[in-house]
Write the structure tokens for this entry.
Amino acid sequence: MTDPATDADLGFASARELRALYDAGEVAPSEAVAAVLRQVAARNPALNAFSCVMEAEAMEAARASDARLARGEGRALEGVPVTIKDFYDVAGQPTETGSFALRKGVAGADNPVVTRLREAGAVVIGKTTMSEFAWSGISRNPVTGVTHNPWGRGLNAGASSAGAGVAAAAGFGPLHLGSDGAGSIRMPAHFCGVFGLKPTYGRVPHIPVSNNDYGTYIGPMSRTVADSALMLKVMAGPHPLDHTSAEAPPADYPARLDAPLKGRRIAYSPDFGHARVDPEVAEVVARAVRTLEDLGAEVEEISPPWGPAGPAIGRFFWAAFLGRRAALLEDHADRMGADLVACIREGAHFSATEYLDWRERKYAYVAGIAQTLQAFDFLVSPACSVAAFPVDRVQPAHWPQHPWDWLSWAEFSYPFDMSGDPACSVPCGFTPSGLPVGLQIVARRFDDLGVLQAAHAFEQASGLAGRRPPLSA
């Protein structure tokens, strides 16, 4: 199988489709993985989605999957390609985190979530690029350089899980592991036109536990909601090394995706009472909300009272989390992004007393979010305020400029990293210039299934899941 058209079809096939092909004996895992790797070799030089490609290891694992399936021992993800964000360890591969200052070297063992994926049969084909320290929404870092949006070279692909979003959009296999601390799954999903889910805090164990006030999440990214549901089922569940992980076992998300939206109560906020949104993005999202109404949902537009408090809280904590890295500046500032350096310097002077005072404000803010969600089944909004813009900028040229504040166009995502609620970005349309836009869907804590069901219903109604970006061709 060396026909480029066939390679592309296998690269864009969903996990469900690949498993059906394997079970029918029409394609072997080794053939599918080889096809995906050829796609990566052909297309990735223009996109730069990978920090490393694991061709030899992936083919060895794929041949082992061939043998398992021949014995009738196929597992849920048997032979299905998956990528891992370079924030997480993969045995025998370097963990660079997009940084010269925080490189961890070659990993001696897999991260436990990677272990779960492998134990379900997934084939790891490589590690994907990320923003430096996983700190920004811009798809570049000093180590691997720029990761380009497949809808337009030179455009921001979102971050920090930029490579995962690009790999999903470009047809480099169906499953991609991302993480989210202020929108780092949902932003690249929005910019790249794919689905991304930030689960409930603790649903997927994070090891080691992140030292940012319970604000980091591991989640799936894929071209379809169904594939993310399958991936989440494999990754979720408690782990003894994450004392914050949820004790409840995962639901059977893939089997329970089909659920009507008729009669479900949805709060729609176009701006959270304060956020600037580009008109071309706002129009696409408003059309998506009308689709939800057409599906029978009861939609009420709201301006949440907690919304305007978000910017000050979000910016304090983002700078505070990074300020503790100030000691790195002495030796590494000249090899770090200027925007990251500016943010570290701003946060370096915060005191422990200030941190605790702001934490008290944050908890009141989170309580306000919970009160809103108690009144509705879902809250929907834009995933981001802008479509993809040049990757060499921190903000679009027509936006107010700031040395580091990319949060200004991501006001919709970080609230739910603070609150712990599940939230996704599902493709909902395109701007007049052909750039993707994402609809954010949020639910109460532990209703990950509800988010997946609502996104799946919208995806089925919109018919947007199969679109291929121009740089994948």
